[in-house]
């Protein structure tokens, strides 16, 4: 498998490129709209054809690049079926795999950060979105989030994977790139196996996080698979822009 981890600095989002060496097809997990040209250039550089964009959930901190990618190269938009987005081409359900050549993507419904959140397991790695971060997790105080639900998602589904499975999250805010199931079990200060459900609920209830500054634009834009709002304040313009031209010609 061809694999690249790509970074968007404004929201500290990781996008993952997976390519099948047999078919020459590729998919992108959690693409960001402002990085579409970069992502397509990387796909082209590797001699691949983009077949799918795949989102883990309806993001609140950035707008997905799914729609712009489809407009540019005709790839299919893949999202969790739970969210029932009308712009979706391939709705994914748990236990219904996405096959792309030699690559099998297994969806795992991992609600708690959002109610429609999915992680994707592929071979020796799992793409955990915001459900499980390196030494942390996504917040649970909006988009029907729930701390107890997230606790069960991580413990019952993600921590049920083999210890040596690599953990690739949607974000890291300190420059880290990868973890493992064993590492998160042992040392995650919120969700490690030494923590009880009640301890986790108390931690999440006392985070005192600020209201997400982009959520009021990101969520409706992402329900349309990546639509930039026309009334975006100048201070937030860096989060969202339309492509001026397709780098594919």
From TrEMBL:
Every Metallo-beta-lactamase domain range = 12-171
Which keywords has UniProt assigned to this entry? Hydrolase, Metal-binding
Q: Does the keyword Hydrolase apply?
A: yes
* Top-rank taxon, per record: Bacteria
Q: From its record, what is one biological process in GO terms?
A: glutathione metabolic process
Provide any one GO MF term from the record: hydrolase activity
Question: SMART domains, alphabetically?
Answer: Lactamase_B (SM00849)
Key word Hydrolase present? yes
The entry's protein name is MBL fold metallo-hydrolase
- Name its species: Massilia cavernae
């Amino acid at each position: 498998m061809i694999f690249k981890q790509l970074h968007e600095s404004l929201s500290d989002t990781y996008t993952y490129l997976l390519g099948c060496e047999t078919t020459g097809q590729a998919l992108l997990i959690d693409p960001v709209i402002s990085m579409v040209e970069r992502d397509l250039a990387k796909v082209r550089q590797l001699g691949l054809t983009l077949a799918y964009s795949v989102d883990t959930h309806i993001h609140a901190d950035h707008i997905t690049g799914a729609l712009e990618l489809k407009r540019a190269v005709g790839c299919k938009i893949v999202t969790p079926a739970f969210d029932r987005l009308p712009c979706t081409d391939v709705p994914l359900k748990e236990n219904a795999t996405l096959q792309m050549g030699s690559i099998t993507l297994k969806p795992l419904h991992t609600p708690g950060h959002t109610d429609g959140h999915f992680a994707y397991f592929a071979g020796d790695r799992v793409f955990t979105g915001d459900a499980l971060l390196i030494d942390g997790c996504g917040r649970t105080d909006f988009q029907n989030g729930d701390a107890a639900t997230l606790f069960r998602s991580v413990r019952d589904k993600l921590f049920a994977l083999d210890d040596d499975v690599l953990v690739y999250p949607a974000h890291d805010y300190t420059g880290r790139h990868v973890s493992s199931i064993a590492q998160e079990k042992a040392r995650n200060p919120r969700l490690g196996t030494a923590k009880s459900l009640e301890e986790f609920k108390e931690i999440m209830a006392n985070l005192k996080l600020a209201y997400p500054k982009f959520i009021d634009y990101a969520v409706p834009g992402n329900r349309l698979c990546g639509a930039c709002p026309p009334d975006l304040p100048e201070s937030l313009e860096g989060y969202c822009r339309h492509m001026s031209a397709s780098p594919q010609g």
